């Protein structure tokens, strides 16, 4: 595994920045190892919901995990508001970094991730393939 630190600046769209960054990598598979920072706006798709919920405020990133592939990411986030209340769900586009987002990303050169529609779930699900040796 190749480990890469990454810092996002205020105003960056957390999900879109991670997807754009992954697009620039030679590797075809990645994962979020750790993430801390804050958001001013979070768009989360909660369990079972069809649409994202917008949450405004001073939000701390407690955890972020998921997989990264050239054709998309699957990311879950837990955030806390200024009273300490915690909520989590699927991280959607439009989630904006408030002060910083400090990430450690793992790139997996021996693997290829891509997403294909799974008729059983109706969603684009992760497909995992070993990479051929160079």
Provide key terms for this protein.
8 strands, two-stranded antiparallel ribbon, 60s Ribosomal Protein L30, Chain: A, mainly beta, six-stranded antiparallel beta sheet, 134 residues, 1 helix
Structure, described:
- This protein has 1 helix and 8 strands, in the order βαβββββββ.
- The model has no long low-confidence stretch (mean pLDDT 97).
- The protein is mainly β.
- It has a single domain, classed as 60s Ribosomal Protein L30, Chain: A (2-Layer Sandwich).
- The protein has one helix at residues 14-23, and strands spanning 2-8, 30-45, 53-69, 72-80, 86-91, 96-107, 111-118, 123-130.
- It starts with a strand and ends with a strand.
- The strands form 2 sheets. Strands 1, 2, 3, 4, 5 and 6 form a 6-stranded antiparallel sheet that branches. A two-stranded antiparallel sheet has the order 7-8.
């Amino acid at each position: 595994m190749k480990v890469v630190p990454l810092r996002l600046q205020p105003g960056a769209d957390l999900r879109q920045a991670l997807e754009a960054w992954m697009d620039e990598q030679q590797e075809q598979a990645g994962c979020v190892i750790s993430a801390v920072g804050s958001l001013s706006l979070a768009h989360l798709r909660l369990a079972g919901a069809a649409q994202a919920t917008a949450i405004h405020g001073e939000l701390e990133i407690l955890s972020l995990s998921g997989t990264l592939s050239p054709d998309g990411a699957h990311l879950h986030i837990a955030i806390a508001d200024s009273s300490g209340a915690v909520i989590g769900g699927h991280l959607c586009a439009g989630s904006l970094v408030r002060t910083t987002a400090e990430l450690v990303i793992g790139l997996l050169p021996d693997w290829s991730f891509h997403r294909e529609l799974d008729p059983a779930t109706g969603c684009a699900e992760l497909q995992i393939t070993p990479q051929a040796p160079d």
